[in-house]
Amino acid sequence: MHVWSVANQKGGVGKTTTVVTIAGLLAEVGYRVLLIDLDPHGSLTSYFGYDPDELEDSVYDLFNGNKKVAKDDVTRLLLKSSHERIELIPASTAMATLERKAVGAEGMGLQVAKALSHVKDRYDYVLIDSPPVLGVLMVNALAACQHLLVPVQTEFLALKGLERMVRTINMINRARTKKLSFTIIPTFYDRRTQASVSSLRELHHNYPNEISNAVIPVDTKFRNASIQGLVPSVMDSSSRGVHSYARLLRSLLERQKQEAL
Ligand SMILES: Nc1ncnc2c1ncn2[C@@H]1O[C@H](COP(=O)(O)OP(=O)(O)OP(=O)(O)O)[C@@H](O)[C@H]1O
Ligand SMILES: [Mg+2]
Question: Which residue, 131, 194, 231, 234, shows the most beta carbons closer than 10 Å to its own?
Answer without folding.
Answer: 231
